[in-house]
């Protein structure tokens, strides 16, 4: 009789039969959703941050204090190359996401590596541009214009650098653990973060560079 009751308990999914495990999975799922929500809050604060920096640049873009202007020193071909590289990295991050959704671990890691290499190339070109500007006599203290320029463009570059470190750490984690609910959430978040940086760069390219040169 006791054995029969135990079978009934198993059939109905009692705590003895795995109900505790189901509760643990549900709690873990809630934690993943909470972390994703936290990232969205972070992204909203970043939108406010960049919005403030863009507004500051627009207000100060004519205040050069008699020094060089953006049109005098900015070399647009290099900026166009940087833009192409970053937009391409956005495409490859999308391919990484597609590979993950197909359960293709090697494809996911491969496209993330390509994305990271493109991002590193972008940072290299931006650092080269900053060195060129400083050598030509434009630094963050030259005028209000250059203060706003270096702060805005540098803040974006810092975000890309953080994304690169984050992406490399995620690649290592994927190589060790594979595609899991946790790594899936992290890949989705880094992809969203990377696309956000691409959108911000389009505004940087248009407002800072195109308007500054023309």
SSE layout and pairing:
Layout: H1 2-11, H2 19-60, H3 70-73, H4 76-101, H5 105-135, H6 144-177, H7 181-213
Helix pairs in contact: 2-6, 2-7, 4-5, 4-7, 5-6, 6-7
Describe this structure in words.
The chain has 214 residues and is mostly helical. 84% of the residues lie in helices and 0% in strands. It has helices at residues 2-11, 19-60, 70-73, 76-101, 105-135, 144-177, 181-213. The chain is elongated and about 55 Å long. The termini are far apart. Mean pLDDT is 87; it is low at 1-18.
Give a quick rundown of the structure:
The protein is mostly helical.
Instruction: Kindly name the structural category.
Output: mainly alpha
The Rg value, from CA coordinates, equals 24 Å
In whole angstroms, how far apart are the ends?
89 Å
> Uncertain segments of ≥5 residues (pLDDT<50)?
1-18
Described by strand count, sense and barrel closure, the largest sheet is: none
Q: What is the CATH C-level name?
A: Mainly Alpha
The CATH architecture? Up-down Bundle
Task: Kindly report the name of the CATH homologous superfamily.
Answer: Cytochrome c oxidase, subunit III, four-helix bundle
CATH topology: Four Helix Bundle (Hemerythrin (Met), subunit A)
- Helix amount, in percent? over 70%
Q: What are the secondary-structure elements, in order, as H or E?
A: HHHHHHH
């Amino acid at each position: 009789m006791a054995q029969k009751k135990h079978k009934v308990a198993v059939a109905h999914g009692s705590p003895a039969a795995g109900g505790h495990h189901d509760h643990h999975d549900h709690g873990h799922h809630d934690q993943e959703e909470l972390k994703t929500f936290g990232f969205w809050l972070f992204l909203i604060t970043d939108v406010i941050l960049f919005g403030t920096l863009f507004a500051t640049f627009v207000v100060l873009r004519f205040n050069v204090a008699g020094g060089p202007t953006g049109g005098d020193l900015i070399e647009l071909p290099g900026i166009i190359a940087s833009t192409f590289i970053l937009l391409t990295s956005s495409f490859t991050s999308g391919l990484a996401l597609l590979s993950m959704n197909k359960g293709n671990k090697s494809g996911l890691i491969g496209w993330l590596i390509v994305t990271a290499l493109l991002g590193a190339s972008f940072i290299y070109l931006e650092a080269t541009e900053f060195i060129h500007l400083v050598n030509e006599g434009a630094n963050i203290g030259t005028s209000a214009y250059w203060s706003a320029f270096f702060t805005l463009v540098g803040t974006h570059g810092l975000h890309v650098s953080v994304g690169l470190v984050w992406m490399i750490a995620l690649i290592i984690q994927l190589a060790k653990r594979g595609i899991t609910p946790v790594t899936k959430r992290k890949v989705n978040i880094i992809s969203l973060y990377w696309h956000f940086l691409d959108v911000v760069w389009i505004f940087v390219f248009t407002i800072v560079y195109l308007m500054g040169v023309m």
